[in-house]
Amino acid sequence: ATEASHIMEDSTKPRRQSSVCAWVNVIYGCNERCTYCIVPTTRGVEQSRPVESIVDEVSELVNQGFKEVTLLGQNIDAYGRDMIPKRKFSDLLKIVGSVPGLERLRFVTSHPRYMSLGVVDAVADTPTACEYFHIPFQSGSNSVLKAMGRGHTREKFLQIVDRVRQRLPDAAITADVIVGFPGETEQDFLDTLDIMEKVKFDTVNTAAYSPRPNTPAADWDNQLSEEVKQDRLHRINELVLQHATERRARMMDRVVEVLVEERNVKVPTQVMGRTTHGYIVYFDGDIDELRGELVNVKIDRCEKFYLAGKRTDEPVQ
């Protein structure tokens, strides 16, 4: 075996399919041992990139015309804990967020075990940071979370949500959830639905548990039937759609700032962009004129997973 070394440059050179939004890796690998996940054995140990390297890359992207950067990490809140001296992800957010010319800053993926309340505060205090948090909680049951090896409780997750709602009441919160994990009881599943009702996520990526080779949970003898897993997946997805609709409905008649990214492929006379919440917005416009521009749009249509409206000179509400 070889010793882990710090990565100075982003050797993966991620494809930049957009000329407006770019993704920048800040930490590689994962030290967690979730019992359903193969990632730690395929991506190695956590390695944080030096702050200077990240800032240089973001500055270069801004110079190339990119307006938004998303910081990437399998467990981004662990950023800096492998460094000497240790660094905090909340500090990195503030530093990158102050890069001259950067309009918007996002990050994924947060882990409730490591996400500090200071990260929420950093987003609230950094003007370029978008009011958007993706925090997979995976299950609302403490017994299932323990079996998953997640290292956090439902109470810890809800504490983070409370801080988000306190500091950024209008923020979007999205998540990932697994249903039908080995040994999950009906009550465990209802505990997950309870989290859904308490938080009312903007979007949740859901999946029925599927055994992965070479993971501990795959060999357990308390697997659930496909019938049970699919029933629970159907039930949770109904709630996902209900909450997604409710969350976007609050945007009706509001003026939002949209960063224009691409043409609407279904309606070529329209453009597509996103709000700071991460909501997709469609409106009439010329993509050659508007790509990369920040445009105020008054919302007049709210669907489950997108918004539509018209350009306006009114201020953002």
Account of the protein in words:
Helix 3 packs parallel to helix 4 (117-125). The chain is α/β, with parallel strands linked by helices and 317 residues long. A hairpin with a 5-residue loop joins strand 9 (270-274) and strand 10 (280-284). It is built from 9 helices and 12 strands. The strands form 3 sheets. It has a 5-stranded mixed barrel. Helices cover 31% and strands 22% of the residues. Residues 1-15 have low confidence and may be disordered. The chain starts with 20 loop residues before the first strand and ends in a 6-residue tail after the last strand.
Tally of helical segments? 9
According to DSSP, the number of beta strands is 12
Largest sheet: 5 strands, mixed, barrel
Distance between the termini: 56 Å
Query: Biggest sheet: strands side by side, in what order?
Result: 8-9-10-12-11
Report Rg. 20 Å
Which structural class fits the helix and strand makeup? alpha/beta
Average pLDDT taken over every residue: 93
- SSE order in H/E notation? EHEHEHEHEHHEHEHEEEHEE
- How much β-strand is present in the residues? 15-25%
Morphology call? globular
Give the helix proportion (percent range).
Answer: 25-40%
Give unreliable regions as ranges: 1-15
In oligomeric terms, what are we looking at?
single chain
Question: Can I get a quick summary?
Answer:
The protein contains 9 helices and 12 strands. The chain has helices at residues 39-43, 51-63, 89-97, 117-125, 142-148, 154-167, 186-199, 226-249, 287-290, and strands at residues 21-28, 47-48, 68-73, 104-108, 132-134, 172-179, 203-208, 255-263, 270-274, 280-284, 294-302, 307-311.
